[in-house]
């Protein structure tokens, strides 16, 4: 009993030190999404004016109905003014080619002409793109910075969210497993 | 030299006086402010309750971030639409989660956050009390003086008649 009392402060210290040590490697900028396992918000966005890529999806815009049907899909929030989006772009392009699901875009608080030029210059990996000029749909998605990437299952339920530019590690370790789960969910 | 106390008093007063440095740094822009002063006052109160998600340690009203401005406008829009203060908070909480509230909600998951500091103080206090009590209670009293010691003490003190 006396011995326990002697070691108790040491154990307490180790416990606190352990928590703080883990905290050193946590990214305070990476906030949990309040929308995980929630249905996508109700919205309807017009297509991105002046877009040259995208084929048949060019004029379509993006709305809730697009996300509630058609199997799993990825939604990426991007803007031409956002430098990390540029860094992320090759990874997103590769993802769109290899993931086997559509990657939709939400063009967040951007000038359509600038976004269209940005996509023409860097390549256009998106299926449908919705133009969110005042950022209101972004707020409905809980977006607090761009880029952000969502995995949505066939029923329109948000399964995964990554804030910040995707990296090959994040895609492999987190996004693709989440996408597999979303595909199974239907 | 006689001026020193006055100087000190002035310095201390200056420390606590509301100056430009301690005034709240409003980031609310003139074009955001509502015409209705009552609604605007409610919006200001809500703006202090909500966190800017970009700067993280600033409230909505303190932050110059773009998103903070958008959320300030959203708060005002909801108020104009007739929402109660709680409805506005719920609206934003539904989208951004607990983190957006500068005053976290009380529930089992946040008990450690709310009661942790008090628990640490109580535990530490209890530890200190226990430590001193035990030390006081079990400390050995020195053995009473022997006959020879008492004689010597009396001699030293110059008392001829030890009793």
Task: Write up what this structure looks like.
The complex is a heterodimer of chains A (186) and B (163). Chain A is an alpha/beta fold and 186 residues long. Chain A is 42% helix and 17% strand. Chain A has six helices and seven strands, in the order H-E-E-H-E-H-E-H-E-H-E-E-H. In chain A, helix 3 links the parallel strand 3 and strand 4. In chain B, helix 2 (37-49) crosses helix 3. Chain B starts with a helix and ends in a 6-residue tail after the last helix. Chain B has two domains: 3-105, Helicase, Ruva Protein, domain 3 (Orthogonal Bundle); 108-137. Classes of the chains: A alpha/beta (186), B mainly alpha (163). The A-B interface holds A 28-29, 31-35, 41, 109, 134-136, 139-142, 144-145 and B 53-54, 56, 66-67, 70-71, 74, 93-99.
What's the pLDDT, averaged over the residues of chain B?
84
Structural class of chain B: mainly alpha
Q: Count all strands of chain B and give the number.
A: 0
CATH class identity of the largest domain in chain B: Mainly Alpha
Give a quick set of tags describing it:
heterodimer, A: 186 residues, alpha/beta, five-stranded mixed sheet, two-stranded antiparallel sheet, 7 strands, B: 163 residues, mainly alpha, Helicase, Ruva Protein, domain 3, 2 domains
Blueprint (SSEs and pairs):
The complex is a heterodimer of chains A (186) and B (163).
Chain A: H1 2-24, E1 44-45, E2 62-63, H2 64-68, E3 73-78, H3 83-98, E4 103-108, H4 112-122, E5 129-132, H5 136-140, E6 148-152, E7 158-163, H6 168-185
Parallel strand pairs in A: 3-4, 4-5
Antiparallel strand pairs in A: 1-2, 3-6, 6-7
Chain B: H1 4-16, H2 37-49, H3 66-80, H4 85-96, H5 111-138, H6 147-157
Helix pairs in contact in B: 2-3
